[in-house]
Structures are given as C-alpha cells and as structure tokens.
Amino acid sequence: MTPITSLDLTGFTEREPGVWSDARNLVLSVHFFPLVPDLPARLEEGERLRSALAHSVAGAGGGLIETVTGEVDGVPALRQLVKVPLPGRRGQAFLGSWTVPRAGCSTVVKVQAAEGATTGMREATVMARVGPADYFRPHPYAPGLEGGLPYHVADHEEWDAQFPDHPLTRVRAALDRITPTVALDERFRALPAFAGPA
Fold first, then answer.
1. Which of 132, 119, 130 is nearest to 163 (CA)?
2. 15: domain CATH number?
C-alpha cells in the first residue's frame, strides 16, 4: 500500500489497513499519493515553503504550529505539526506528519489525537504564567498572517513535559519515537527527488 516497509508499532492495534490506534486514542496512519506532491515549494526553499504552508493551513481554518525539514530513512522530508478545530464541538485536534516527497509521488506518516471533554487547560495555564501580552505572537513563518487558529506559546515544545497527557504532547512524542524506525522501499528511495510543485 505504501513504500514504508516497516515502522515501530509498539502499543498500537491495527484498525484497518494502514491505520492503527493506541489505548489513548492516538491514531497512526501511513499513506501513499501517486501524484506530484502538493507542497508549495521545494524543501530547500525553507522560508517560502514555511510561509506558504502557514497561509494554507490558516486558510483551511487551522493553525501551523511548526514545520521543519529533515530526513526519513535518509530521504529528505518535511515534518509538520498542525492544529485544527474539532467539528461540531469545542476543542482541537493535533496532527503531526512527515511527508517524504519524490518527483512524482509521496508517502506520509501521520499521527493525530484530539482533545477530550476537558479543553483549554494547557492554554489557560501557560497564559497565566507568561501573561496575555506574551502569550499570543505573530506567526514566525508569516508575521502578517490572518485567519485560522491563533499562534501562541502554549503550543511550544518547552511546555510538553508539564502536560504529558495533552494530545499535542502525545502526538509530538509519538512522531519523535516512530520516525527513526521507518524504513522505505529501495525502489521509492531511488526515485528522482522532488523538484518543486507542478
């Protein structure tokens, strides 16, 4: 189904082909897209890529928390952490992913988790500590960005240790743990590199 030949599934139970979940409703999935990747710029165009992604996520009603380039099994890739509003109720879902783009296709590893009945505790606690003036910030990738979910410091990794059960903490930790275990099919690795949007 995907060029991913193996990854560490410790703690996960398969729900359907390519989709697993754990006891705390963290969902892990793998995907393959046989199309030119829809990334707005080449991985090497860091500033342009980050700005365009921030605008794209905001335009869809979400918020880009962070994005970095790196490697998955030695192949250049893009990591994104995104938050989106939950449809029909209060709260947010958090999605972490690695996109591994090649010239004519891509594969994605995604981890996601949603807030439960209690929402906003992390945000309220952090705002109380840093103060409202230092809580909300211009988006670092797109300072004039409007729309979507606001950018704020409670989403920063430095707060994860104090909120170990928060879905963002769990998504970030799971992605960090799983990524080094991902193995890619040699035929996928040998494909031409992603050269930019079509």
1. 119
2. 3.40.1000
